[in-house]
Specification:
The chain is α/β, with parallel strands linked by helices and 302 residues long. The protein folds into two domains: 182 residues, Rossmann fold; 98 residues, Putative methyltransferase TM0872, insert domain (DNA polymerase, domain 1). Helices cover 40% and strands 16% of the residues. It has 13 helices and ten strands. The strands form two sheets. Strands 1, 2, 3, 4, 5, 8, 9 and 10 form an eight-stranded mixed β-sheet that branches. Helix 7 packs across helix 10 and helix 11 runs parallel beside helix 12.
């Protein structure tokens, strides 16, 4: 039976070029998802080469393809260094992270990732995690909710949204997509409805999955896992992620703090391969509209 593909890999040719794949090399894709990137990387490897792919979602692990050059790891990429040590990997020649959400997640009403479907507000990438979107909405303080919408959704009406949610949940818990939409619709600009709903759901998803902290952990560990000359390729989809990745690749720290030596030369553990992020062309956006916001940044470990 043909394996089901539930995610169209973004910027696939550009990713393969960015990783500068050596046939005998060792690589890690920390976001297996539908397996599109991973499969394409494996096809470029010799019998001596190997790819380790990670995902915290059991669905992705269960749907993964099989190949002798390929090892699947069920886990969160914030534990990258530990997993590489467990598999006796001393260093990798390239590391890929596609921080987008799979079609599978958006299109499955049971997962609660999308405002387009009715269903429980879940949004957990790891379905064994205790915290889901409904718990965030019903248990967080008004200030915590406002901070979440402002920081992770970049919403100017964050305080009003938080206030409306707290007022509503005093009457009945907010546990479904439909309930949340009823509460927030009065505060959304009808001309930007899809955009603002997407921002609200993005903020919830980031909070539920602790995505920013996980990304910070991945970035700092990447320097320990990559061999000298190894490539780091990361695809981001919103400004919070992109800012972190950009700062880290330029300076080697999360704050973007430029450090210089005695002679005023910039000290950085990585060198940018491209000065500007790589984005999808019109043809790809037409085939895969979700690639519109994808930004690929690439750096080499010095």
């Amino acid at each position: 039976m043909e394996e089901q593909v539930y995610h169209i890999p973004a910027l696939l040719p550009q990713v393969l070029e960015a990783l500068d794949i050596k046939p005998d090399g060792t690589y890690v894709d920390v976001t297996l998802g539908g397996g599109g990137h991973s499969r394409a990387i494996v096809e470029k490897l010799s019998a001596k080469g190997h790819l380790y792919s990670m995902d915290q979602d059991r669905d992705a692990i269960d749907r993964a393809f099989s190949d002798q050059r390929f090892t699947v790891i069920h886990g969160n990429f914030k534990f990258l260094k530990n997993f590489m040590r467990y598999h006796h990997v001393d260093g990798v020649d390239g590391l890929l992270a596609d921080l987008g959400v799979s079609f599978h997640h958006f299109d499955d009403p049971e997962r609660g990732f999308s405002f387009r479907w009715e269903g429980r507000l879940d949004m957990r990438m790891n379905r064994n995690a205790a915290l889901d979107a409904a718990k965030v909405l019903n248990d967080y303080s008004e200030q915590q909710l406002a901070d979440m919408f402002y920081l992770f959704g970049e919403l100017k009406n964050a305080r009003r949204l938080a206030s409306a949610i707290v007022k509503q949940r005093a009457t009945e818990p907010i546990v479904t997509v439909e309930q949340l939409r009823r509460v927030i619709t009065p505060f959304i600009n009808p001309k930007q409805e899809k955009k603002e709903l997407a921002q609200i759901f993005q903020a919830l998803r980031i909070e539920v999955n602790n995505e920013i902290e996980a990304l910070k952990a991945l970035l700092t560990q990447s320097l320990e896992v990559l061999k000298p000359g190894g490539r780091l390729a990361i695809i981001t989809y919103h400004s919070l992620e992109d800012r972190l990745v950009k700062n880290f690749m330029k300076t080697g720290n999360l704050e973007g703090r430029v450090e210089k030596d005695f002679y005023g030369r910039t000290l950085a553990p990585m060198a940018l391969v491209n000065s500007k992020p790589i984005t999808a062309d019109d043809d790809e956006v037409e085939r895969n509209p979700r690639s519109r916001s994808a930004k690929l940044r690439v750096a080499t470990k010095l």
